[in-house]
Amino acid sequence: MKKSNNTLGDGQSVEYVESVSDLENRIRAHKLFSRTSLENVLMRCIEQVNENSALLDLGCGAGNFFKLFYSKARTYVGVDISENLLEDFRRQHNETIVLIKSSMDELPIFQNSSFDAIFSIYSIYYSLRPVELVRSLHNLLSDVGHLFVIGPSKIEHAVEITQFCNILSTVGLKTEKNERIENFHDKIIPQITKTFQSVDIEEIDGSLYFPNPQEWARYVVSTPQVKETSSLDSDNLLSLAIDYSVSNNCLSVSKYMTALIAGKQ
Ligand SMILES: C[S@@+](CC[C@H](N)C(=O)[O-])C[C@H]1O[C@@H](n2cnc3c(N)ncnc32)[C@H](O)[C@@H]1O
Q1: Ligand 1: distance of its center to the CA of 61 in Å?
Q2: How far, in Å, is the centroid of ligand 1 from the Cα of 181?
Q3: Three-state SS annotation for the chain
């Protein structure tokens, strides 16, 4: 994990370099233990996409939802800043697709109206230039196109992890982060609402309920929030998290998702 000096202009950084194994851990936990899976939410989104669409997946990572997107795609373009995640993507999928290593803030030149659907799943809040990004996504969509964005809600976001981070702060504090949620809700969503003709926003309960302290700890220590709070190594973090879960009888992580669908017209 690396930190960068790039900021939103107010001294805060939203950047985070994702690790393949941490992301895999979180995806696995969401599939197994969450009240509403992200996959179910995305299945409802993909129903609104026409067959044979040109689709852009912004912050595509290792292509976790690629199969779902590809079911409607004539063309699939994935953009991500992490070469490691894109390599993992290529290893897992043989389909003819375009994967581009790029920051979403410096997108390659695509023609206007190139895409019928743009997805950004838990990634758009990394943008350091949200106003410009939303404008260019609007331009990139065809007239009947839709932007689908999913990210963390402001409602009750992972209070259990924040409490664990407060404990950690006495044994290895680096910094506390909620800038990404603020970036998402205070900058990006208002900009989408201003730029797009129709916007639907839904808050969905995606809380996680774990069967034992080991699973709780495995998930919690793979989150950016914990990784950015503590400089302890993974083994130490894991055993602290297991102890915390046992002594506080804590087996859940409360999480709502904000799902937004914006229509160009
Ligand atoms: C939480 S992961 C989500 C990945 C994928 N959308 C999914 O749902 O599995 C966030 C992704 O955003 C990517 N990312 C972070 N900052 C980015 C940036 N500035 N431009 C493009 N991608 C970025 C990360 O590399 C990572 O793949």
Answers
A1: 5
A2: 14
A3: CCCCCCCCCCCCCCCCCCCHHHHHHHHHHHHHHECCCHHHHHHHHHCCCCCCEEEEEECCCCCCCHHHHHCCEEEEEEEECCHHHHHHHHHHCCCCCEEEECCHHHCCCCCCCCEEEEEEECCHHHCCCHHHHHHHHHHHEEEEEEEEEEEECCCCCCHHHHHHHHHHHHHHECCCCCHHHHHHHHHHHHHHHHHCCEEEEEEEECCEECCCHHHHHHHHCCCHHHHHHECCCHHHHHHHHHHHHHHCCCCEECCEEEEEEEECC
CATH code, domain carrying 27: 3.40.50.150
- Please report whether residue 182 resides in a domain: yes
The pTM for the full model equals: 0.85
**Pocket perturbation via mutation, ligand 1, pick of 7, 57, 126 by most ligand atoms within 8 A of CB:** 126
Nearest CA to ligand 1 atom 10: 123
Provide the number of structural domains found in the chain: 1
pLDDT in tens, 141-151: 999 999 999 99
